[in-house]
Structures are given as C-alpha cells and as structure tokens.
Amino acid sequence: MKVEIVTEKIELGFLLRLKGDVDMNTSSDVRNALAKVFKQESSGMKALLIDLSQVRYMDSSGIATLVEVMQNCVKKGARLRLFELSPPVRDVFELARLASVFEIYATFNDAVMGL
Amino acid sequence: MKVEIVTEKIELGFLLRLKGDVDMNTSSDVRNALAKVFKQESSGMKALLIDLSQVRYMDSSGIATLVEVMQNCVKKGARLRLFELSPPVRDVFELARLASVFEIYATFNDAVMGL
Amino acid sequence: MMEKMTLIVPSHPKYLYVIRSALYPVVIGSGFSKKEARKIVLAVDEACSNIIKYAYEGDYSGTIALKVFVDRTKLKLELMDSGKKPDVTKIAPRKLDDIRPGGLGTHFMAEVFDRVEYDTSGAAGTVLTLEKTHS
Amino acid sequence: MMEKMTLIVPSHPKYLYVIRSALYPVVIGSGFSKKEARKIVLAVDEACSNIIKYAYEGDYSGTIALKVFVDRTKLKLELMDSGKKPDVTKIAPRKLDDIRPGGLGTHFMAEVFDRVEYDTSGAAGTVLTLEKTHS
Ligand SMILES: Nc1ncnc2c1ncn2[C@@H]1O[C@H](COP(=O)(O)OP(=O)(O)O)[C@@H](O)[C@H]1O
Ligand SMILES: Nc1ncnc2c1ncn2[C@@H]1O[C@H](COP(=O)(O)OP(=O)(O)O)[C@@H](O)[C@H]1O
To answer: E strands along A2-95, which residues?
Structure first.
C-alpha cells in the first residue's frame, strides 16, 4: 500500500526504481522524490531512467506525475525513458493512450542504448 | 485466492509444493491432492516432503489437513517433513503450538538429510 | 442481481488500497479476466478519488460506500457518497491529445464501463452506477 | 471510537479471502505490526469460518458483516450474522495436546484478542465482538 522509490546516480544521470502502489495517496511521495532528483542534478543530466517493473498499481495520479516529470525533463534538456512496465502499468498507459507519448523500453539495457 | 499444488515423485517418495492461500475454501483441494499421493504410492514411500515457502496464508483448516496427512503417514510408515515455512505459516504453527508436533526444516536439503 | 459485497470506508485516500484489495477478488470471482479485473478496479479507484477530491473537497471525514452486484450477464457497481453533488453536465474528461497532468479518471471510467450514471436525486450526496457486461 | 470499515459479504468460504484482503491494510493502518496484523486477520478468518459452519450450517445465502473500529489504544471488531445463535457455553477450543484436525479456531481467537464476546440478545443472529489493545 506504500510506494518505495530508490534513486541511483548513474553516469548518464539518474536511475529510479518505483515499487508498490502509485495512487492518489502515494503519488505525492513519487513527486517529492523526483523533485529532489531535479534539484540534485547541478551539472545537467543526460537522462532519467525509471524502472516500473515493481509497480503493482498505478492510477491517473501516477500518470499525472509522470507527465510532469516529462515536462521537467524537456525543460532541462534531459531524456526521460521508462522501462519494464509491469502489467498494471501497461493497462493504465493503454487506457490513457500514452504509449506513444513516452519513450518506453522493455529492459534497462534497451533503455540506455543510444543515449 | 486459489491454492496450487505441485506434486513431484522423488526417490524417497513425494515432494509437494503448496502455493497460495490454504483456508476453508481451498483446504479440500489440498486434501484431495494428498489423497491422490497416498493412492499412488503403491510400493511404499519413505517420506513425504512438503514445501511451504509459497504459502501466503494458512488457517486452522490447513493445519487440520496437515494433521490428517501426518496420521496417514504414520499409518503407512512414511516420514512427513515440512520445510521452508513462510511467515504466515509460522504464525499459525506458533498459535497452534505445533512446532514440536511436526518435523520442520529450514530447507529442502535439511529436510532430506538422514532419510 | 445478487449482491456480492458492500464496503464502507472513510473518504481518505489511504482507503483506496482497501477498496482495491476487496474489489479485485470479487470481480475475478464473477468471471472477468485478470486484465479486465485490473481495469475495472482502476476505474473504480478513479471514481473514488473523484469523490474524495470533488464531492468531499478533500474532507476525509466523509464515507464512501461501494456495493457490488452480479448476475450471469453483468457486473454492477454503486458508489455512494454524502458529499457535494456534482454538476453532472460539467463532468468531462480532457481531450486525450491535450497531454497534461489530470483529466483521465472520467475517461477511464467511460472506457472500462458500458454504463456510467450519476444520480443526484437523493436527499444527500450522489449514487454513481457503473456497469459492465461480460464480453 | 472511529469507525474505519464496514464490509458485508455472502456467507460463502470464497469470501474469506475478500475479508482478509480488506481487513489486513486497515489493521496495519491502525498501527499493528505485520506479524500482529497477520494473526488478527487469521483469528477473524476463523471467526468467519465458524459463522459459515455453525451459524449458517453451510448455507451460503446468508451474510457476514464486519465492522472495524479504532481508537488510540485499541482495535475493535464486530462480526454480525443472522444465522443460528450458538449455545455460548458450548463454544470451546479443544485441548492443544489432543492433536486432531479441528478445534483450533476459537483457541486462535482467545490467543490473539483481549476480549471475545458473543452477544445473542438481538432479534436474530449473533454479534461477536473482538478487541485487541495495542501492545
Ligand atoms: N464526483 C465528482 N463530483 C464533481 N465533479 C467531478 C466529479 N468527478 C469528476 N468531476 C469533474 O470532472 C473533471 C474530470 O475528472 P477526471 O477525469 O477524473 O480528472 P481530474 O480529476 O484529474 O481532473 C474534474 O476535474 C471535475 O471537474
Ligand atoms: N459461531 C459459532 N456458533 C456455534 N458454535 C460454534 C461457533 N463457533 C464455534 N462453535 C463451537 O465451538 C467448537 C470449537 O470451534 P473451533 O475452535 O473454531 O474449531 P472447529 O470449528 O474446528 O471445531 C466448534 O466445534 C463448535 O461446536
């Protein structure tokens, strides 16, 4: 019922792993964690990679958070790449017709390719 | 909400892996699967090993089923050994004060030792 | 139709998890696939979020009641609150190509369910009926 | 005490899973550890199994209602059925060293809860109150 966010500094920028349920109750935790990341990246990051394999649930407030992140990345000139979407995340992306709006990859390796 | 039972014939007898929730709704499935095992063992089995690592929930009807199995094993001269009890299984064994009634092992390897 | 569940919880976002946890196995038990059940639960979660945000305007001391009915052909859900009644003509999803945070919940509800109906005729609050026929 | 949840389901064993799924996060949310919460859920599950077996005598068309109340010091649960009233003097666990199938449910309830009380004074059915103080 909680969401866990693990942030890792990598050469290209940041790798985030989301775990748990992202809903109206927890999406603000995700938003705060991401705000910290954007504060930290002083030297300019190339990319933000988000691992969604451990997300058991995501609703429209989670989508809203990801859309905000995308807008922030565009502003900072960083690439946002999502990878390993769990079945419930795939459901909500499907319903929101967002598959073409985000850069989505099957694995971490696929996501870092060409960056 | 369902229980899955995987039965494997091994040299010593049978290895059973229980997976899911064992409650009033599903314990009869476990009982039936075990009845089949006892029918199959024509040549007399030495031991019945039960893997409880994937059991997400067990109530007193699950305990009742295991007590019956133990009684059947005694009749047939077979050893019953339980291994890798998941936390919810450990809870119910604790409450039922059954830890000393069953032969319980940490791992499969521990359970087959000395058989 | 047979009544399968009534669930009443406070209008606090932390109970969304409770609603999802209780609803999912009932939907599965009434014959929907896992994928369909996940989408149904998502759409109900969105409806509950909207009750918290708009009917109760963030006041957590209200209640949300969910009733689940099932028959051979369909699933019917009723969500009841005693908050502010919505102006039903103004409940509308955003255009999907207008990419911005928010405005998706009502779209999900319309996408997942065959019937979405707000009844504000009661003395207080709203009854939202959501129906889905087995495919 | 604050009412945190009301859940009403049919008296069918497949709803035990629904009851457990809804109750666990509410118990966790009221401040019990995971281990305590698992045991509380187990004891409630046993009480519900007994309602199905003894109050409804296997008739699945009845209902089980669970109410959850919380305050700073304790958790209170009420289980209501409209089945046969028990002879409260005869509800008793078996001796634990009498190893046989069955007879453990009431023992779990007594072990987990500080108060276990059957009220059969209503017009129909039983109200079972289960209370646990925070340790
Ligand atoms: N239960 C409700 N009561 C009043 N207004 C509502 C209700 N549900 C939705 N609305 C209105 O419909 C709009 C669209 O809702 P929705 O698609 O869920 O997206 P969001 O809540 O992100 O805006 C909301 O902004 C709100 O104005
Ligand atoms: N709700 C109830 N109504 C009537 N009798 C009950 C009820 N709960 C328990 N009992 C009685 O108490 C006995 C012990 O119950 P329990 O410890 O749960 O074990 P079991 O159900 O396996 O016998 C039961 O066999 C039954 O006779």
So the answer is: 3-10, 13-22, 47-58, 79-83
Helix ranges (H only) for D9-133 are 16-29, 34-50, 105-112
- Distant-in-sequence, close-in-space partners of B46: CB < 8 Å, separation ≥ 6: B12, B13, B78, B79, B115
Contact C110, C116 (CB under 8 A): yes
How many angstroms separate the alpha carbon of residue A58 from the centre of ligand 2? 42
Q: Name which of D1, D2, D4, D5 to mutate to probe chain C: the one with the most chain C Cβ atoms within 10 A of its Cβ.
A: D5
pTM for the model: 0.94
pLDDT for B56: 97
pLDDT in tens, C24-81: 999 999 999 999 999 999 999 999 999 999 999 999 999 999 999 999 999 999 999 9
The DSSP output letter for C90 is G
Contact: C17, A24; criterion CB under 8 Å: no
Q: What are phi and psi of D96, to 5 degrees?
A: -65, -25
pLDDT of residue A2: 87
- The secondary structure of residue A13, as a DSSP letter, is E
β partners of residue B47: B13, B79
Q: Is the CB of D51 under 6 A from ligand 2?
A: yes
Question: pLDDT per residue over A51-73, tens digit each?
Answer: 999 999 999 999 999 999 999 99
For the four alpha carbons of C81, C83, C85 and C87, in that order, the dihedral sign comes to: negative
| Helix pair angle (D34-50, B87-95), 10° resolution | 60
Quickly state the pLDDT bin for B15 (edges 50, 70, 90): very high
Q: Buried b / exposed e across D69-91, counting CB within 10 Å, b at 16+?
A: bbeeeebbbbbbbbbbbbeeeee
Query: Hey, what are D32's tokens?
Result: 């019990």
Q: How many CB atoms lie within 10 A of CB B89?
A: 24
